[in-house]
Amino acid sequence: MGSSYDVSKVDSDEGTHLKTKDRQLWRDLVAYWILGLCNNYGYVVMLSAAHDILAEFEEDTHEEPSHDFQRECNYISTGAILLADIIPALCIKFSGPFLPFFVHVRVTLCCGLAAAGFLLVGFAQTEWVAIVGVVCTSLASGLGELTFLAYSSKYNKNVVSTWSSGTGGAGIIGAVSYAGLRSLGLDTTQTLLVMLVVPAAEVVAFWGILRHNHQPQISATAGSDNPGATSDSNNDLQRSQEDVEKTTPSQTSYDEEDAPLIGFREKIRYIPKMFKYMIPLTLVYLFEYFINQGLFELVYFPNIWLDKAEQYRWLQVDYQIGVFISRSSVNIISFKRVWIMAVLQFVNVVFFLFEVFYFFSPSIWLIFAIVLWEGLLGGGAYVNTFYRMSSELSPNRKAFAISVTAVSDSVGIALAGLAAIPTHNAICRIPGGR
Questions:
Q1: Which one of 42, 112, 422, 425 is most buried, by most CB atoms within 10 A?
Q2: Which stretches within 210-263 are classed as H helix?
Q3: 65 with 114: CB under 8 angstroms?
């Protein structure tokens, strides 16, 4: 009984820490919530501002439109901003798991790129400068998500849920702050300058609130958690736990499932095992962002208390409320079958396609309800995927697996942006509207 008592004190999620009461755990949880908020804030703001950014540059050209649109549409879909907001992040996420994990350098880059993005878009006089600003924001968000999720493998598993809640909070706070500041009369430049407080908050959260010294240092390469990086006492505890785990007949052997991934080829061969997490998440994000950036701007209710641009902004707010609720709920309710959310999200795509063709909805409140549901599905798929991984995967493979799976949402979003632009243009050439 004595040895079993000792092993029971090992945190199975961390593999290296005693389950003694951690009075400072709140610091890690709060820090990860703020980091999630700051990391996704700029990304959300750029998508909320997408309609305004494109409309402003179209007005500034003072030229006759060269398209043959039959509806009131921007000359290019907001999917163009979506692509600028996601493709750089996608490139970072593909390469990041195989690059050295210098966490302090990475976080410094994240904060600098986020600030540069706000400044470039805010002061842009030409379209290409604004796009470069969006790209900077995208790089900051992609690198941050990859870094913070991988770094979370060294902390209590609940930092994943607070991170996810923070990213959901970014949706609401980002969309509401942009729409609210514009409603108060601030122009785009003034609004984005106010938002420079967000990269500053990210600095405070990471270097001022999050604890580093008491945790094992992450290895030089993300996804390869070197047991030698822990203290001798922690290694003894981890070996004790592994001995107990090996005695369970139903478990795969330690050598096969728990050993650290060494080398590029071994990591590549491990990726197909992550498809059960990656494919449903990719589909959910493909469907929801196809709606948000391809179809939202085509849904319009004239002669109500919101004009067309305001309707787009507040639909984004509504969507982000749904995301925040579901991303904050994993400790209350969780789901393993994320593929069901992908099916339900596809049903939403069908609904919105019929809406933009036939305008059958009697009230914008029905659209707000469907958009809220869409956000609940998207946020639920995200948080349940990573929370499940944090519970099911071995500590030695968790960081790499999470880094690889973090590519999934970006792949879906990029595919949605590619599909949204031609779909937008095709629908705008069809006579219709309310």
A1: 42
A2: 232-246, 254-257
A3: no
